[in-house]
């Protein structure tokens, strides 16, 4: 037997059995970005220390030593902070995730752009605090996908196992994690290489906080951040950010929506002067967006007839019952700077506004408890351009 | 690495952090990286994990290499180190689980895509990790003894010794299995 040749042949044949993923997996790209952030922050901090003088250049990131910040930011009295870590002096209030926390003044904060787990880029769902000191703190929360059977730990594990959510409890079941208290509530914490993850449930809402790091004192740092967290699940936002623009080819407005394939521009003309509405449905005369999230937006516009009271005309032709409130008595709102009226029923919200001789109707059919906030967020994206309307 | 000869094209680009260039670098080296990882570990899923870990590590560091052509070698060394780390972890886990009580274990047993009929493959993964590395780097990667010594961080003499002992063991064990 020629073992040399046999081993070469066998190795080549075995190697041919495998092929890597054809493209860089998103998880790898994310890790590359995180790693780059950590390294860049650490290097910058070391450079700052050198400029200030006196810091031994022999210390490097690889030995896991915490870089030293400027002297005026060094915490001298707070025992909860790792030595040399700047004070947590600045408060960040998450606009999406329902919490607030403190961070060093010098930290760079990137608020969450989208619902956690809703975008392909998972980081879009996290509020990210880049400390510039080899540590990135992140927070996100959800009440979507957190239902189902099983214990709380099992449901959390199931949710975190979703590839679009990440991370994964460091691969250890939540029931085996150590305990941690965040804002007075009992949570769980797990630690793996270069990452710490904690989960806590408040108001039926799952919160995840992580620290990605290259520090030896990461746990103390995480605890210091966690001690500043206030959980406010009542302020969390559970509808998606609206980033895709729609310009109505018919009715003279544009708005933004979250594109999940639910856009349906009007196919026929809405003409309430000759087609008074007699139902609460919005048919193909309306530009519509089916969000797939218990919310259906509809919009249209028409010229206002001359010589009529807008309130009475709307009550008679546009909004069949105004949710029982005549337009003249409805709550006021502003759409693109124009004063209008809004009315809410249990499963429907309608707003009307006049601009440039046109009456605009914006409506939401829903099954959501946060429908008004969702509607307001949508209305905030509307631009009224009556001059571009293509129909009377 | 692994029958690829155009490392120099991508060294600086990856270091500059360009995602597009990283994608090109990945496309060029991913297969050979995973194959090396597979030969060292015998586990396809683990090899994929090690491949991704290797690209994460090298994406942040390769720009600092003075020699652009070193990117392939750096990637190769990263795979060897990551694979070794895996086996170290497995040893620790086994210690905690007291699995030694059931007798000495061959590293080839756990989680590997071993085809038992392929005695040579099985015996390769019964070798000590450094012996297996020496064999794979010399006979699959076609590295010189000097290049292998650099990656294994040992002397050329040590590489010769590792390779010779590995080949003797393979010859003996595969031969005895064939006889039986």
Q: What attributes does this structure have?
A:
heterodimer, A: 392 residues, alpha+beta, seven-stranded antiparallel beta sheet, 6 helices, B: mainly alpha
Topology:
The complex is a heterodimer of chains A (392) and B (180).
Chain A: H1 3-15, H2 26-52, E1 90-93, E2 99-103, E3 108-110, E4 127-130, E5 135-142, H3 152-160, E6 178-182, E7 185-192, E8 195-202, E9 205-213, H4 218-226, E10 230-231, E11 244-247, E12 253-257, E13 263-264, E14 287-290, E15 295-303, H5 310-318, E16 331-335, E17 338-345, E18 348-355, E19 358-366, H6 371-379, E20 383-384
Antiparallel strand pairs in A: 1-2, 2-10, 3-4, 4-5, 5-9, 6-7, 7-8, 8-9, 11-12, 12-20, 13-14, 14-15, 15-19, 16-17, 17-18, 18-19
Chain B: H1 11-15, H2 19-41, H3 44-61, H4 71-97, H5 119-124, H6 129-139, H7 145-152, H8 156-179
Helix pairs in contact in B: 2-3, 2-4, 3-4, 6-8, 7-8
Could you describe the 3D structure shown?
- Chain A has helices at 3-15, 26-52, 152-160, 218-226, 310-318, 371-379, and strands at 90-93, 99-103, 108-110, 127-130, 135-142, 178-182, 185-192, 195-202, 205-213, 230-231, 244-247, 253-257, 263-264, 287-290, 295-303, 331-335, 338-345, 348-355, 358-366, 383-384.
- A 7-stranded antiparallel β-sheet of chain A has the order 3-4-5-9-8-7-6, sandwiched between helices. In chain A, strands 13-14-15-19-18-17-16 form a 7-stranded antiparallel β-sheet, sandwiched between helices.
- In chain A, 19% of the residues lie in helices and 29% in strands.
- Chain A is of the alpha+beta class and 392 residues long.
- Chain A has 6 helices and 20 strands.
- The longest helix of chain A has 27 residues, at 26-52.
- Chain B has 180 residues and is mainly α.
- The longest helix of chain B is centred in the middle third of the chain and has 27 residues, at 71-97.
- Chain B is globular.
- Chain B starts with 10 loop residues before the first helix and ends with a helix.
- In chain B, 38% of the residues are buried.
- Chain A binds chain B through residues 1, 3-4, 6-8, 10-12, 14-25, 27-29, 31-32, 35-36, 39, and chain B through 2, 17, 19, 22-23, 26-27, 30-31, 33-36, 38-39, 44, 47-48, 51-52, 55-57, 59-60, 113, 118, 120-121, 124, 135-136, 139-140, 167, 170-171, 174-175, 178.
């Amino acid at each position: 037997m020629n073992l040399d040749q046999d081993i070469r042949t066998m190795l080549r044949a075995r190697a041919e059995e495998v092929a890597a993923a054809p493209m860089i997996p998103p998880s790898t790209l994310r890790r590359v970005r995180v790693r780059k952030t950590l390294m860049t922050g650490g290097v910058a901090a070391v450079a700052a220390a050198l400029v200030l003088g006196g810091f031994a250049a022999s210390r490097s990131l690889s030995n896991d030593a915490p870089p030293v910040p400027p002297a005026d930011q060094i915490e001298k009295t707070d025992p909860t902070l790792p030595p040399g870590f700047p004070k947590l002096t600045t408060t960040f209030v998450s606009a999406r995730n329902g919490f607030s926390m403190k961070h060093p003044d010098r930290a760079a904060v990137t608020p969450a752009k989208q619902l956690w787990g809703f975008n392909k880029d998972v980081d879009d769902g996290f509020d990210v605090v880049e400390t510039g000191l080899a540590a990135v703190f992140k927070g996100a929360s959800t009440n979507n996908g957190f239902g189902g059977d099983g214990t709380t730990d099992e449901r959390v594990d199931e949710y975190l196992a979703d590839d679009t959510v990440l991370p994964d409890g460091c691969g250890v079941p939540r029931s085996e994690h150590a305990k941690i208290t965040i804002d007075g509530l009992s949570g769980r914490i797990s630690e793996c290489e270069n990452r710490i993850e904690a989960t806590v449930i408040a108001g039926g809402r799952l919160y995840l906080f992580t620290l990605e790091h290259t520090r030896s004192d990461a746990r103390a740092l995480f605890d210091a951040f966690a001690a500043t967290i206030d959980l406010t699940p009542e302020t969390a936002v559970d509808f998606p950010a609206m980033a895709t623009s729609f310009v109505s080819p018919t009715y003279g407005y544009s708005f933004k929506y979250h594109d999940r394939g639910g856009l349906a521009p009007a196919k026929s003309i809405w003409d309430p002067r000759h087609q008074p509405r007699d139902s609460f449905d919005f048919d193909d005369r309306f530009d519509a967006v089916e969000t797939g999230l218990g919310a259906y937006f509809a919009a249209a516009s028409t010229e206002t007839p001359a010589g009529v009271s807008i309130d009475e005309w709307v009550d008679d032709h546009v909004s069949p019952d105004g949710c029982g409130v005549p337009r003249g008595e409805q709550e006021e709102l502003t759409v693109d700077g124009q004063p209008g009226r809004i009315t809410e029923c249990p499963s429907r919200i309608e707003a009307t506004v006049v601009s440039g001789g046109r009456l605009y109707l914006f409506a939401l059919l829903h099954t959501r408890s946060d429908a008004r906030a969702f509607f307001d967020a949508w209305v905030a994206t509307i631009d009224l351009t009556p001059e571009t309307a293509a129909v009377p | 690495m692994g029958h690829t000869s155009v490392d120099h094209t991508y060294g600086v680009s990856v270091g500059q952090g360009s995602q597009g260039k990283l994608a090109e670098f990945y496309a060029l080296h991913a297969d050979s990286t995973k194959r090396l990882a597979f030969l060292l570990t015998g586990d396809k899923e683990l090899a994929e994990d090690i491949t991704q870990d290797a690209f994460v590590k090298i994406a942040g560091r390769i720009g600092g290499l003075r020699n652009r052509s070193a990117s392939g070698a750096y990637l190769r060394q990263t795979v060897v180190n990551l694979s070794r780390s895996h086996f170290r972890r497995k040893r620790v886990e086994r210690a905690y689980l007291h699995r030694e009580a059931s007798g000495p274990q061959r590293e080839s047993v756990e989680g590997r895509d071993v085809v038992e009929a392929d005695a040579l493959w099985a015996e390769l993964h019964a070798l000590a990790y450094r012996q297996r590395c020496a064999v794979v780097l010399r006979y699959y990667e076609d590295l010189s003894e000097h290049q292998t010594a650099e990656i294994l961080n040992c002397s050329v003499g040590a590489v010769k010794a590792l390779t010779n002992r590995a080949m003797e063991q393979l010859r003996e064990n595969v031969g005895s299995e064939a006889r039986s």
